[in-house]
Amino acid sequence: MHNKVVFHAMKALRGFGFPLLRFNFRGAGRSQGAHDGGRGEMDDVRSALDWLDREFRLPIVFAGFSFGASVGLRACCPDARVVALIALGTPAVDQGRTFRYRFLESCAKPKLFISGRADEFGPPGVLEEIVERAAKPKALVRIEGNHYFAGHIDEMRQAIEPWIRKTLTVGGGL
């Protein structure tokens, strides 16, 4: 919740006047519970969506980093309250496993994927294949840097801002 990627994504979205909510998944930081391999964490995302909906009654743009991107995409694609998705450092490989994200093939919401060219969890070719199979509209931006965009946080943020502006305009407004 307090890493540079999440903080700067929040700053980029704040510039558009969106209400923002950052949270830790169960068992992370000072949150209660224990890591649940993504199952319970999807409930964490759904609870966050419920809170945002109750508090603001506005369309929701989801942005998540790494594990948060993976879990958030799964929870938010079928949720009608979420109108656009931003996935930062989407993990495509980890500990010898390759993730395919087949559910994205039917997720017609605008999707932005941003990944470092040297991202050890999103190697060249693997993430491109995931994005290629995903339903339109979609965009993949590769910038310099590793999984944490080390030394390239500004470029990550600069990739978010025009995409949001375009999505707001082309999509008829959020």
Topology diagram in text:
Elements: H1 4-14, H2 39-56, E1 60-65, H3 67-76, E2 82-88, E3 93-94, E4 97-98, E5 111-116, H4 126-133, E6 138-143, H5 153-170
Parallel strand pairs: 1-2, 2-5, 5-6
Antiparallel strand pairs: 3-4
Helix pairs in contact: 1-5, 2-3
Please, how many domains? Answer: 1
Q: N- to C-terminal separation? A: 25 Å
Order of helices and strands: HHEHEEEEHEH
Structural class: alpha/beta
Q: Roughly what is the average pLDDT, rounded to an integer?
A: 90
Low-confidence stretches: none
Query: Mind telling me the CATH class?
Result: Alpha Beta
In brief:
This protein is of the alpha/beta class and 174 residues long. The protein is 37% helix and 17% strand. Strand 5, helix 4 and strand 6 form a beta-alpha-beta unit.
What does this structure look like?
This protein has about 170 residues and is α/β, with parallel strands linked by helices. It has a single domain (about 5-165), classed as 3-Layer(aba) Sandwich (Rossmann fold). It contains five helices and six strands; from the N terminus they run H-H-E-H-E-E-E-E-H-E-H. The protein has a four-stranded parallel sheet with strand order 1-2-5-6, sandwiched between helices. A two-stranded antiparallel sheet has the order 3-4. Helix 1 (about 5-15) runs parallel beside helix 5 and helix 2 crosses helix 3. The radius of gyration is 15 Å and the shape is globular. The two termini are about 25 Å apart.
